[in-house]
Each structure stands twice: as structure tokens, then as C-alpha cells.
Amino acid sequence: SDDACQKGLAEVAQDGLVIRNCNRAKSKIRSGGIYLMDVPADDMAKEIGDIRMADMILIGALLGYTKLIPKELVLAGVQMKLAKKGEQVVLANQKALDQGFEWGADASHIKKLEAKAATESKYSIEKTTVGEILDTPKLRAIVEKMFPQVLNHPLLETGRTFKFIDAIPYMKDMLKPEDLDNFSDALEEIE
Question: CA 120, CA 110: separation in Å to the nearest integer?
Fold first, then answer.
């Protein structure tokens, strides 16, 4: 999901790799200095005939890119581990892994997200608290304009110490990914 992806980015090292299911996580990534592989894993899994194969496709993409383990060894491991579940399950998982391997092995699917300039903005959804947003007139005005319904959230005062990004799961029914992108851009423009 977009929330999980944005939260997890804080843990990614410089020049680290993020592999995400772009059918589920679509918002703009705000971290720089990392590599991103967007994998349409849900679409690929539907082509196989089972949406549950999306995670196996992502694992295959990781292994295809990193080449940590030879594909044949992983496919044999799937055969051993899932044999009790029947040949159809084994074949579907192997096909998902194979498609993921192929996707990950194609370097054109990787893009480098450049690190931000040394002069970072004063505000961002990653470092600004809900309380700062409520107490800073310029920031509050952005919220009032973009998604005023958030100001009526019953837990708003309780969440004042949360970084905005950590409060998003509590407001997910009030915010769309594009709203978050626009809000984040607006915050970063304020000095």
C-alpha cells in the first residue's frame, strides 16, 4: 500500500533498492538516493490466474535483479516446499517466480531517484507533526483548502505529536494518494 511504502522508505539505506507493487502503491516516492523497481505484480498475477501470486512475483523480481540465488534453485525449492499442495499450485508459483525473475533481470525497470538538494525544505510529511500543521497558519491553510474534512477528525488533537506520515493510516478514508502528493508538494514549497 502507499502508506506502508512511504513509511518503509525511512529504513532504506542510501543507494538501496525498493521493489513495490505499483498496482497497489502509486504515490510519488519522496525519498531520494534510492533505486526503485515498480512491478505491476497484481496485473501479472491476474494473467497467471491467481491474484495471490503477486507476492511471489515480487520475490522473483528481487531475485532476478540481485541474482542472489540461481533461478533453477529457487524453482526447485518451490517444487519441494509446495508439492503437497498439488501440481497446479506448484506450477502457478513457479510461473509467478519466473515472471518476477524476468521482470527483475531487465535493468530498464530500475530507476534511480536522485537525492534532494542539500537545502531541504523546512516542512515535509515525513518530518512535520500534525501539531505543527495545526499551529502554523500557512500549513493549516493548506489543509483547509485541500482536505478540510481532516480538521473534523475525532482523533486529530490526540495525534498532534505524530509525524503527518504516521497519522495517514488513521485518515486513509479521507485522503487519496494524489491528495497526499499535492499536499506534500505544497508543504515543501513553504519556507
Answer: 25
